[in-house]
């Protein structure tokens, strides 16, 4: 997880988890992936268009970046920022390349989180499952 | 365990006085604070809601701004604070901010993953109480109650001041004291109420029992209010008279006064945008003496308002302006360049610009689109110099005005990328010369009564000039208005970059600009939108005022806005960073000033304009 997650932020989420919401973190993450899948799809579509509408792309990416940062997805967020740079520069190639990276990080993180939650469930509700570092 | 929470999120049912049902919790404050959170991102919304609940607040979440607005309207006293995202698909966060502030007078906190200065500035100019950067931390949310308290306190004070009665003051004073302390106790609401009761003196119609310090401005009520204001004329629209005209039982003068303030700002913003072009200078511009008396700003407002409401024929406005300014009646096209800026002052400029010259401009639309804010909100500096140039070209005569608008628009909208993305900018294309204004918008435009009668007063709105312009906008408004009107004129003149002295106005805006408050970014603008140029310069504190595009010399500008007679100091790159917007403004102003400007800003707005636009 190291590097993938902004622990501070993730911690915040974990702190929010309590008896009333024992699976809060997992719920949030699930929601994030579900919602962002939609964004990813929109971005892909926008990238395929020609000419590329950079404004729209930028706006999607802004949203995506915001979401990602709220769950602490550090790497994803970083790639998003890079993507936006290319966007602003009107660099379609750069955008596409970067987006591949974004997707890569995004998927990798998802896997890690899935594993994490599995472990957490196994470990039981006691504390927070230790994050595999 | 929330004591008193039984009410559920919408505590409208419970007596207003205590959100929490009075009996509980006076000490529990801020527990039970009623928060409305708006964000299109479901992940964020979920997290925020959880965090807020953890802080023991009551939360209502919405993913759409429209939904939030209708809920708030339906339950005027049901919420204490609103937290909203900046970027939302159905409505711009700033627009929501404006609406809420205008209608419900609730503290609004903006948030965004975007932490660029321009956006934050925009939040400030639009009256946001605070701005949070995402991802939001729970610690940041823990303290939001302070904004609620602060606002209440200010409201009371404001009311007191407005009533102007000594006797009221006294009881109030004590009340205030009580109030503050009560806050601690948690029973602040109650104390407020008490205050009200005590006060009821003077023209308080407290029939409604001051319990509710806040009046809900329903659409009808607002219409009545607008009608009254229009009838009286923006200049003469004083709370007392409005109250009389409205004849609504239970409505106090203070309510009207505070609403009027907001309304003025709002109008300013609007006028710039879509209003007819005529508006250009009209509302703000008060044909009155270029001296911009404080009235001018007001007048400007009226016009704008009227224009905005469409009630005033643009032409009349234009005529007004023309008359006032001495300029030829501007073709209706001139949209009210007025600095619409309401609070933002800056923004207003944009509007005015729009109309200027380019009929096409739509800039008004642009601006209007959202809320005037387009105008320059934030930092006009973005005005892309290009736009200014456009303005400039456009009509030399009006260009000033127009350009101003566009300029403003351009400038302010850092985001809008000069051209308008913001909508405000539109004008830019046209007359670019006006660009100067944008800056001014930010600065309360020292009202350069610039000759042209630059109706644009727009920027003068800059109220911001004064520290914390937002709250002070009433003051500014006046000042701005006055100035604006003048400034615009001047601006126009100046704006047209043409260096042609068009600006005859020699708007000193630059100088006058807000020097005083350069910090504020707007504060300078207070100078009067007119000066926008100057103001911008001033305003540009950051940017340097390079905007002095043309030589604005807005001689008239001298006014600078109310607060800061700062003479154009703005030029001084107060905000060196601001560069983007400010620069433009400063550049504009500089130009205008022709020399007055501290010249810091050398009109290099070209440099910034586009780059600055922080999207």
From TrEMBL, chain A:
Ranges where the HPt domain occurs = 21-116
Keywords of the record, alphabetical order, are:
Cytokinin signaling pathway, Phosphoprotein, Two-component regulatory system
Q: What is its main location?
A: cytoplasm
Modified-residue entries (Phosphohistidine), positions: 62
| UniProt-listed SUPFAM superfamilies | Histidine-containing phosphotransfer domain, HPT domain
Name of the protein = Histidine-containing phosphotransfer protein
Kindly state a single biological-process term from the GO annotations of this entry: phosphorelay signal transduction system
What top-level branch of life does the organism fall under? Eukaryota
**Could you tell me which species this protein originates from?**
Linum tenue
Sample GO molecular function, one term = histidine phosphotransfer kinase activity
Write down the PROSITE patterns for this protein, in alphabetical order.
HPT
Cell compartments where the protein resides: Cytoplasm, Cytosol; Nucleus
Looking up Gene3D superfamilies in the UniProt record yields:
HPT domain
Annotated Pfam families: Hpt
What does its UniProt record remark on the domains? Histidine-containing phosphotransfer domain (HPt) contains an active histidine that mediates the phosphotransfer.
| GO CC term (a single one) | cytosol
Return the InterPro entries for the record: AHP1-5/YPD1, HPT_dom_sf, Sig_transdc_His_kin_Hpt_dom
What does this gene product do? Functions as a two-component phosphorelay mediators between cytokinin sensor histidine kinases and response regulators (B-type ARRs). Plays an important role in propagating cytokinin signal transduction.
Q: Does the keyword Phosphoprotein apply?
A: yes
TrEMBL record, chain B:
Subcellular location field: Nucleus
Give the superkingdom in one word: Eukaryota
A Gene Ontology cellular component where this protein is annotated is: nucleus
Q: Which key words tag this protein in UniProt?
A: Activator, Cytokinin signaling pathway, DNA-binding, Nucleus, Phosphoprotein, Transcription, Transcription regulation, Two-component regulatory system
Q: Which residues form the Response regulatory domain?
A: 34-149
Entry keyword annotation includes Metal-binding: no
Entry-linked InterPro entries: ARR-like, CheY-like_superfamily, Homeodomain-like_sf, Myb_dom, Myb_dom_plants, Response_reg_B-typ_pln, SANT/Myb, Sig_transdc_resp-reg_receiver
Which residues are in the HTH myb-type domain?
211-268
The biological processes this protein is annotated with in GO are: cytokinin-activated signaling pathway; phosphorelay signal transduction system
Q: Which residue positions does 4-aspartylphosphate occur at?
A: 85
Matching entries from PROSITE patterns are given as: HTH_MYB, RESPONSE_REGULATORY
Q: What's this chain's function?
A: Transcriptional activator that binds specific DNA sequence.
What's this protein's family per the entry? Answer: Belongs to the ARR family. Type-B subfamily.
According to UniProt, the name of this protein is Two-component response regulator
